[in-house]
Amino acid sequence: MTSTIEVSNTLLQEEEEGTKLGWPDVVVIVVYFVFVLGVGLFSSWKSQRGTVSGYFLASRNMHWIPVGASLFASNIGSGHFIGLAGSGAAAGIGVAGFEQSAVYVLMLLGWLFVPVYMSSGVYTMPEYLRERFGGQRIRVYLSFLALLLYIFTKISADLYAGALFIQLALNKTSPEWLYLSILFLLAVAAVFTIAGGLTAVVWTDFVQTILMIVGAFILMVISFIKVGGYESLVERFPYATATVRAVDAQNNHCGEPPSDYMNLLRTIEPGKSDYPWTGMIFGLSINSIWYWCTDQVIVQRTLASKNMCHAKAGCILAAYLKFLPLWLLVFPGMAARVLYPDRVACASPELCEKICGSRGGCSNIAYAELVLNLLPSGLSGMMLAVMMAALMSSLTSIFNSASTIFTIDVWGLLRQRLVHRLRLSVTPSDTELLIVGRFFVLALVAVSVLWIPVIQ
User: Fold this and answer.
1) Contacts 24+ apart (CB under 8 A), 383-387
2) Which domains does the chain possess?
3) 347-393 residue pLDDT tens
4) pTM (2 decimals)?
C-alpha cells in the first residue's frame, strides 16, 4: 500500500511540474504558422478561385505529387498520431493493418473508380449517384449522411486529439486555454479554405505532409535509440507494465500487452484478439473501399488532377506513404510504453484518471509523452507544429469537401424551392455558388466550436 501511494504521488508530481515549451519551441511554432500561411495565401492568389471548378476542384489542374501528398495528409489527422501510437502502446502492431489495407485499395481507386468519376464530369459523390441511378432521393440522403458523418465523427475526433496534445504540451488544464488553442487553429484552417478553395488546401497539405514525415521520422529515430533499437523494443515490450495495477481476481494479467503483439493478423478465437484476421481481411476491406474510393474528402483530390495519369500517380504516391505510419507512429507508441510504463500503461482506474483524466487507460498520451520528454527544446516545438499540421490538414479537407457537397447537392435542391419565392434566376451563377460555399465553411467552424465543451 505504501509503494502504491509513493508511485501515485511521484506520477502526480511529475504531471504537475509538466514539461513546458521553451522560447525556442515558441519560435519554431511561429515560424511554422508564418510559413504555412504564406504558402496558403500565395496559392490562393495564384489559383482561379473565381469559378466553381477553380474553387472546388482546383480547376482540375493539380500535379500528381501534391495530389498524392494531399491524399495522405487528408487521411492522417491528429487523431492518427494519438490513436495509432496509443493503440500501438496498448496492443502492439495490429492496428497497422488499417494503414496497410489502404495500399491495395488506393490502387482500386486509381484504376477502377477514378476513371468512371472523371468521365462522368461530376463534382461530388452524391452527384455521381444521381447521374448513375437517377432520382433525387439517393442524392439527398447521401449528402446529408456525409455531412452528418463529417460533423459527428471526423471533426469531433480530430479536435479531441488536437486538444489533448495541446493541453499536455502547454501544461494547461483550464478551459480557456483549450478554447483559445482550438479557436486559433480553426481560424487558420478556415482562412485557407475560404480564401483559396481546394488549390490552397492541396498545396498546404503538401507542405504539411513533408513536415509531418520529417518530424515523425526524427522522433522515431530518437525513440528507437532510447529503447536500445528494434530488437530491444520487441524484447522489452511484453514486460512494460505499470507498477500499480488494478486488483482483479478474475484476471491475473490486467495491464499486460497481448502475447501476439507483433502479429498483424491475429487469431479469430473469441476474446483472444482485438484484431482477428477475418475482420482485418474481409471486414476492413469493405470499410477501406468505402473510405478510399467513395468518400468525398479523398475522391475530390483525385478529381482535381490534370488528367488520369496524374490521378493514378497520386494514388501510387499515397499508397507508398501509407507504409510509413507503422514505423513513424505505431512503433514509437510501443517505445513510449517501454520508457514510461507507469503513465502510458497505467492499469489502475483511479490512478489513470489522475494522470490523463480517463479511467479506461492512458495509452492515448503515448505520443505526447515522447514529444515532451525525449525531444530537446526546439524539436518539441517542431513536433507540436507537426500535430497542428495534421489537425489543420484534416480540418481544411473536411471543410472544403463538406462545402462542396452542400453547395452542389444540397443548395441546388433548396434553391429549386426558393426560385419563385425569392425571385432567383433559374440557373445559379458562379458567384452565388462560391458565396454559399464560403458561408457554409463558416457554419462548419461554428459547429466545430460547439464541439469544444463536449471534447473537454
Assistant:
1) 383/215, 383/219, 384/21, 384/25, 384/29, 384/165, 384/166, 384/169, 385/28, 385/29, 385/32, 385/33, 385/211, 385/215, 386/81, 386/211, 386/212, 386/215, 386/216, 387/78, 387/81, 387/162, 387/165, 387/166
2) 21-455 (1.20.1730.10)
3) 888 888 888 777 888 898 899 899 888 988 888 888 888 888 888 88
4) 0.88
